[in-house]
Structure prediction request, 325 residues.
Amino acid sequence: MLPEVRAWLDDGTTNASKWRLDALEALADAKQGTRVSVVLPACNERQTVGRIVTAIRTELMRSRPLVDEIVVIDSLSTDDTAQVAAHAGARVFHQDAVLPGLPPESGKGEALWKSLAVTTGDLVVFLDADVRNFTSSFVTGLLGPLLAEPAVSFVKASYDRPMNGSGEAGGRVTELVARPLLNLHWPLLGGFVQPLAGEYAARRDVLERIPFVTGYGVEFGLLVDILEAHGLGAMAQVDIGTREHSHQSNAALGRMAGQILLTAWSRLQRHGRIVASEQPAGVLTQFRRDRDGHHPDVCDVSVAERPPMAQVREDLAGQMLAARA
Prediction:
């Protein structure tokens, strides 16, 4: 590990217990006039999304509220996720209904990017909607460094991640794909325990000036792009304890790994660190066994990317002015 990463781990890593509920008054004092938005992208998460929204609303939005709004982006759910979230008190937006003039894309990153168009917070907290053991300390822990340290622009969660109640750790794509890529090409990010964590927070002006990969590569892309734009000193991580959530199939993890690899490839090309003779294919061939043996299953893992939201706002404003002229 690089010496500067070790120093960053000492200075830039805190524990969520430092920002627990009994410290809310201090956080509210530090918040002053800052607005805070919490965003949950959700696809078929009716079992957990309501409990998460309720915990935030009842614990962090009363008296001197730390959170000003909760927004759920319904990412093409086929169940009643949207209704459950709305009943719990969230503002719910269907992914394709946000910025409807743009050609629609799919994926988690699309939901996160579109949330910037419908939220109002100066600070934006992203949370996964499938967490089973959610507590409001996830939010207070992520907000604490942003409110206490003006130099911090981005905070990532770290946690233990038990797999199906066993002692075996989850996060197979993290350990087998993301971490080796970061250690090889972006070693300054080697101190992030959970680089693909869906729990993180940032200042809006930072988020609106970087592109968003629309699929599962979004967390990897944001981490690399924020490092390139602002440096490691603007980044921090908070230990939120243990995170329990549903685990995906090997086929789904294969698609996730493919998108992360393509996201890393795009950043290396963009920064002039590789020159490729041809573009990598955006397809993944997986093999599934049935009664007749192995059969290939070819799926699309291509990576689309949305431009910085600030650029989109400027373009839309220009179009409106041109239309009025």
